[in-house]
Amino acid sequence: MLGKYPFLTAARELARAKGLERIGFEDLEGAKRRVFDAVNRAAAKEFPVMENPSDESSVISYALGRLLLAINDSDYYWQKFSRGEAVLAMQYLAREPAPGVLKVARDFFPSIAEAEGGYSIPMAEYLAYGSQLPSTRLSAGLVSLTKRGLFELLKNAVARRAKEKPPAVPKNDLFKSAAEELKASLPKPIVVREYEGSHLTLPCVKAVLAGAPEGKRYYGSMVIANACRTDGLGKAAATAVMQEFVNNCGKQTHPFTMREAEATLEWVYRRPPFFNCNAIRQHGLAPDECAFPCTRDRAKRRK
Amino acid sequence: MTNEPAKELFRRYYVARTLTVPALAQREFGFGFESKIDYRHKAFGSEGEFNDFMRREAPLYASYSTARYSLPAARPMPRKGSLGTDLVFDLDKTYESEHPDSHNAIACERCLSRSRDDALRFLEEFLIADFGFKKSDVAVNFSGNKGFHFHVRTAAVQPLSSLARKQLCDYAGGFEVSGETLLETLGEGKAAVLRSPQPGDGGWRGKFYSSALGIAQNATQESLQENGLTKGKAAKFMEQKAVVVSAIERGKWDYLPWSLDFWRKIADDTVRAHRVELDKPVSFDLARLIRIPGTLHGSSGLVAKPVDDLAKFEPLKDALAFSGRERQAVVCDHDVSFDFGGQTLDVRAGVTVELPLSASLLLYCRGVAKPAG
Ligand SMILES: [Zn+2]
User: Fold this and answer.
1) In this prediction, does ipTM exceed 0.95?
2) Where are the domains of chain A?
């Protein structure tokens, strides 16, 4: 099972048993190949999957691959690698009989149980990997999930675990040169050159600023806060913009309060700037003429 | 400038009792004499040391960290070494806008009773029913001023991330939950499927299910029209009422296809009626300080009192710092009138009056009175 799911806790024992001092050229080659495949797989729709990968080689390549990534320390590759590993795991899980799925799930959610129509997970365990609590079925501290819901959650969980940075990084030349070779072989990062004008003047943001319907205002306040943050506005200036949004929502029957809006600002301003106009569209808040990708305003290039 | 008359009474209060703080030696403390927190990063080795400090300094505001640390006084923050963080919720909403004409800025019983009702609903509907905490896991505390604090100190919540805590607030706030998400049409045309609440569902789906079923069971021509149906549609609904009710009991919402929009509106109303608006940063900020249970609040002189029976709790009677018959003479700088401890107190500007000690303290803390003489 560890061959297919080398991120499981039990795999750590196997990796430790091998020991860093016994790592050789072949092992590092395998690790480089694994990272290369995962990074490229992140975007692929179809890819070959080995039927029965060997436990040891898979666990070692996964563990060493993560060490090589840690030496290079690029968030871009960590992101791609973790997504690629999650995609691979989901391919195996899709063919896994129910007891196997449960075994993998239990590694992340120790108290998961089969329930009518799917599975149930204690809320605190769900919160360690899930991020959609408000839209889950939650009762008496148990989150109920359909099989599909569990798979979505597991995909997140596998990716999140794959990008947890290892506590220590080997510093010897063998590893360093392998890490350099790996970096040279990987596709160059695609850097989205962000729109350089004001995000607050984008048509989608302006549409949100004009007021959002009930049930969408919280997300709307996120859009405004992120636009202010990305534009580099100070907290006071952002608060003034948010007040405008709140006033515009207030024109409808049930107002959105400034207090709630300020909590959103507080949350967004504690985090790095982030702006995604695709999400605005998915929430149905962008005007029809605003098409994603917003090619007029964004450009991609390889660094 | 420190509020000396208030400070004097605060000192008397602290001298007369010994406060206990859970895991005291692992908490960071912060105190305020002029603002809510003038300084923080303070730690105490024992309850004796802490109580001595309170009696000596009599701070107007006393807070402690929701987190426990191995080195609580260390700076900067990462050096403290977090050992976990209590899960804390703060309900401090103001209700003034609901009764602008009768709101009382000195002490408002209506605001406090609205706050208590919301607190009770948050405790029963969310903390216990949905989040699954046992009643004994949740320590409820009057904040000492406008609202209530909820502390969960179980082992399971200690490692929760900031995002996890924010999700719990978002859940209680009903964010992104609406008629459209509770009765969601997936796909289009003939392939369209309605994803809808079913009998036995919990959480927001359950809240909507029971409120909608109640509305259907008790429907009258008038109630349906009040809820937004036209006269004609309400009449059609009434003709089919028994069948509609039995369809909903089987989880079928579109027996009358045109009624879906009606049910979506009912769902929106349900979310609005049940949602609880929390002060989210108090929950998601892992380095937050919060009022220490049992201490006095510098803006009111009321006790941040642990509450056993929320339904019966009346802050202006049950959270008084001094309950004896002692009175103190005060002079107000303008006319005030307020209900306090079961009586209405009227004080004219410039006129010396003797008030119960806790009422005098309230006026000092509100900055509208001085001791007479
Ligand atoms: Zn009031």
Assistant:
1) no
2) 10-106+154-185, 203-302
